[in-house]
Amino acid sequence: MARSERTVLVDGVYDALKERIMDRATAPGTRLSIEGIAADLGVSATPVREALARLAAERLVAFVAFKGYTTRPLLNQRQLADLLDVRRLIETEAARLAAQRAILADLRAMERELAAMDVLAPTPRYRDFRTYLQHDQRFHEALVSAAGNPVLLETFQGLHTHTQLARLVHDVGAFDDSENAVEHHAIAQAVRDRDPDRAAEAVRVHLDRYEAQLGEQLDCPGADKRSIR
Known about the structure:
A hairpin with a 3-residue loop joins strand 2 and strand 3. It is globular and about 55 Å long. Helices cover 69% and strands 4% of the residues. By secondary structure, it is mainly alpha-helical.
């Protein structure tokens, strides 16, 4: 079914605003004027409000009554650690369960996302990184879904971790996805092999490495850029 013109319009405004936030063209802490954005994008205020509501659900902007919307601050080291602690709790348990419960459709869903990521060459610029990020997120969602617990999946999706972490990727000088690919394939293989302990450990290794590299970026603001892998 074709999407309505209104939905297409809102999606376009949402994509434009999200790209500005992810690439820091709109800096953290910026007050967002609905009227100003509408004039800038050549649309009415209604699609801007709807797009901002979607961005608020992803925790990219915050709404305060009588003050309006502002872009949220970037994660600091403590928030990064806390977010990834919760993600470890969810995904390591999900990986254990997936290794025991995954059906063929679950395995194929993970394989599709891995295959899509394997042919991409992302950069830290959000327009180039967006498609890779979407497949990365869907891979992890497929893993959690394979655990067979809808509440676990809903909780994981509500964290919006990929969007939050991707804001930090902007600060790196290059994006090298090679280690990401190796770790993703290790997770999927452990699930295919029906090895719960190895699946959980593969997830832990992946998230530990990601936290260490993003944490290093936060620890050295303004330093020479290093590639994230």
